[in-house]
């Protein structure tokens, strides 16, 4: 699976790991990949996210809001997450693995077989449930509008 990632997609996964580590997460989630995609300059994925107001800073804030909202709905009062050193390499969580699987499937149907940032973003946005759709709802950003802004995939 990783052999299909372009250099920019590998950068996104590594940067997603950095975001996960910075929040003391134990695994790399799809929302960490989303933040990284918003930072990868020069990509269509980043332009679409930033044009929708989804900068890395705003996404990190939305992730914090969603975490606090989820904890409160479970009857837990949120508190700051203590940042502690984590493993040098974090595993991919199910949500991130599913993103990569969807990207691989999409790449087998297109002219180009590589998985770039745009394909990764499409796979992140394909999620119907989970943190990413909740983040987009909090931001009042339409998933289908983001997908449309990415344009047609190569056929």
Question: Overview of this structure, please?
Answer:
It is a single chain. The protein is mainly alpha-helical and 155 residues long. It has a single domain (2-150), classed as Clp, N-terminal domain (Double Clp-N motif). The protein has 8 helices and 2 strands; from the N terminus they run αβαααβαααα. It has a two-stranded parallel sheet. The protein starts with 6 loop residues before the first helix and ends in a 5-residue tail after the last helix.
In brief:
The protein is mainly alpha-helical. 60% of the residues lie in helices and 3% in strands.
Going across the major beta sheet, what is the strand order?
A: 1-2
Q: State the helicity in percent bands.
A: 55-70%
How many structurally independent domains?
A: 1
CATH superfamily: Clp, N-terminal domain
Return the CATH architecture: Orthogonal Bundle
| Euclidean distance between termini CA atoms | 21 Å
Give, in order, the helices and strands.
HEHHHEHHHH
Inertia-based shape: globular
What would the average pLDDT be, to the nearest integer? 90
DSSP strand tally: 2
Keywords for this structure?
8 helices; two-stranded parallel ribbon; 3% strand; 155 residues; Double Clp-N motif; globular; mainly alpha
Describe how the helices and strands are arranged.
Elements lengths: L6 H16 L4 E2 L1 H10 L4 H8 L4 H18 L17 E2 L1 H16 L7 H9 L5 H8 L4 H8 L5
Parallel strand pairs: 1-2
Helix pairs in contact: 1-2, 2-4, 2-6, 4-7, 5-6
């Amino acid at each position: 699976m990783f052999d299909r990632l372009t250099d920019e997609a590998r950068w996104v996964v590594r940067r997603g790991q950095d975001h996960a580590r910075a929040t003391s997460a134990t695994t790399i989630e799809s929302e960490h990949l989303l933040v990284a995609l918003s930072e990868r300059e020069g990509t269509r994925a980043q332009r679409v996210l930033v044009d929708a107001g989804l900068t890395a800073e705003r996404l990190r804030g939305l992730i914090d809001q969603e975490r606090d909202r989820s904890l409160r709905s479970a009857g837990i009062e949120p508190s700051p997450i203590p940042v502690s050193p984590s493993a040098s390499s974090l595993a991919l969580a199910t949500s991130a693995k599913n993103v990569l699987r969807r990207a691989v499937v999409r790449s087998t149907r297109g002219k180009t077989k590589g998985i770039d940032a745009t394909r990764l973003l499409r796979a992140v946005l394909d999620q119907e449930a989970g943190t990413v759709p909740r983040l987009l709802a909090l931001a009042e950003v339409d998933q289908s509008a983001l997908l449309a802004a990415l344009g047609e995939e190569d056929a």
